[in-house]
What does this fold into?
Amino acid sequence: MKGRHLIIVITHKQGSTLVILNTVMLFMFTLGNGQKQLPSPSTLMLIIMQNPMKP
It folds into this structure.
């Protein structure tokens, strides 16, 4: 639930659905690698900041 809440907050602040898609892709990639623990909010924020979405 924390992950979903984080996605909603980030999307609300950025005002772009591209952030949701990027975050969902990140979660799917993490699950695909067989990792049982999802990335922490700080890690998600760093990844999103390092890969800015162009409108």
DSSP finds three helices and no strands in the chain.
